[in-house]
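Workshop exercise sheet. Pairs work together: one partner reads the sequence aloud, the other fills in the structure field after running the prediction. Swap roles for the next sheet.
Pair: D.N. / O.F.
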Amino acid sequence: MKKILTLCVLFIGLLALTACGDSNGDGDVVEIHVVFSKMEVTTEFEEMLEIFNSEHDDIQITLLPTEDGQGVIERVRIQYAAGEAVTLMHIDAGFVPELEPQIRDLSDQPWISRAMDGTLDFATREDGRILGMPASVEGFGIVYNRDVIRSVIADFDPQDIRSVDDFVALLDTLEAADVNSMLATPSLDWSLGFHLMNAFLATQSEDLDENLEFLDGLLNGTVDLYQNDRFQAFMDILRIMFAYNMFAETPLDPQFDDGIVNLADGNVAMWFQGNWIHPPMYGVNPDGDYGFLPVPMSNNSDDFANRRISVDVPQFWVVDEYLSNPEQQEAALTFLDWMVSSQEGQYHSAMSLGLAPVMDGANYIPQDPLSIAMVDYLERGEALPWVISYFSGGILTTTGGGVQQYALGLITAEELATIIEDAFEALD
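Structure field:
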């Protein structure tokens, strides 16, 4: 498959610049900055950094905050433009190729041999370089509040939902019992305008290479998206989500925190999201019980798409070598190894941040119900790859905006297809 992303040559001349503010100048303490993309557990990550810093007198790692509404990758670009190093970066997989000219080869690191099968594939190049450490395994689908559904359907079994009609019947049953069945959040462009697109990108075939060929067609402008069966199924599920949305009259109003509170408190039965929502939901309702339903894509109960949720490695840790001196790079590498090898690092990564480990022999695995449900799908072989990792996440501003227009009734499904097609072609 041809290179999907056009690699940006970011500020090559910055090699001559000196990193700003990352060393105290006396050689005793190496100071570095880190950016972290999982905003829902920022506080927990800062607590983890405090523990690491207290154990390493010669290293001081400081979280570089992102402004409200500003993504991590935007902050990274700004820092490079200013010649100011961010030595350690937690970024979406789709941005790894963009930063390839700036980041360090990690193939010499001690954790490489322990990485689970397949978790290094995306970051591995033909010449053997490994450009990132996989951060975690994550999964997404339709998250349901088990207690809410079983208050209406005592013997509810998620394995019974095997088609679009089955899913609609479940929604109708809940609504008939005066239960809000569905929350849709088109205001979150990364959710319905990016993550949900995996439902049609990863189900064109059970073969990943064939799905990537379809993606190439989108990037080349040779796919008529509106005529594609899986895209039509994607539009069907969007229409269903919006029709049953508890905020149907004001679809752009609910934000991420609104979803957390409503699902955790039992004000709604289902919300399209991922296992990353459990830590903040636990803060609202420590006794909450949740599970995953696949996004249904047809009325064929034997369709593989109706049995699978999306599970993959969505983010990687990368280390800057453009603006960071060797001591700073070594400090970042020390933190990465500490996170996956030490008892403290493994514990806080899994139990505080809720990150499912990607290293064999991990001593701690999140025990929240969504992580357990995700692993169940993996063990059954019912996982879809994140095809959305194979192109730049920067597309979501456009595609998410299109979904928002569609949610407001401002454009048709065919017009949304054109918006998505144009967004992909602009990436090529």
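Discussion prompt: The CA atoms of residues 69 and 75 lie 11 Å apart. What would you look at next?
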